[in-house]
Amino acid sequence: MRAGLAPGQVRRGLRLFREVLPLVESFATALGKEQVSIEALFYHHAFLYEGCGFGYLTGRDRLEEIHRGFEPGGELARRLDGSTPFRMPRAAATVRGRSWAIHDGILGEPWRVPRLYKIVGQAVGLPTFGACPY
User: Which of 126, 127, 70 lies closest to 96 in space, CA to CA?
Assistant: First the structure.
């Protein structure tokens, strides 16, 4: 976290997803597929996938609930009590901070992996993160 990484990272990413996605879509088209699906193994993954035009097969309601929980006065925001380095109050302000808090167990339950999809050549879905920066 101090190194600017998100949960699941051991080094900074290559930031190639936006470049690779059109290749994946071309491959899907060659296979006769009209859509691709992906799983958000961490909270911040859902944010990144939404930004690339993915919509939700499962988990949208939960992501919206989590977003509301981190809003000022929300239950998750109240749990950011500074009891661990991952639960500092400022974590509510960014997707990465929220992801670390979730990784630390702030939800009180295991992370339920949402499944997302993208129709080849089209953007889908509405964001669930509001104006929260990465």
Answer: 70
Strands 55-58 and 35-39: unpaired
Contact 118, 40 (CB under 8 A): no
**What residue has token string 């295991």?**
110
Q: Please, which pLDDT band fits residue 127 given cuts at 50, 70 and 90?
A: confident
Sheet of strand 115-119: strand arrangement: 35-39, 115-119, 55-58
CA dist., res. 92 & res. 130, Å (int): 13
> What is the Rg, in whole angstroms, of the alpha carbon atoms belonging to the chain?
16
pTM as predicted? 0.92
User: What pLDDT does residue 131 have?
Assistant: 81
Enumerate the domain spans of the chain: 17-119
Among 87, 128, 124, smallest CA distance to 104 is for 87
Cα diameter, the chain: 51
Q: What confidence tens digit (pLDDT) does each residue in 43-56 have?
A: 999 999 999 999 99
Q: What is the mean pLDDT of the chain?
A: 95
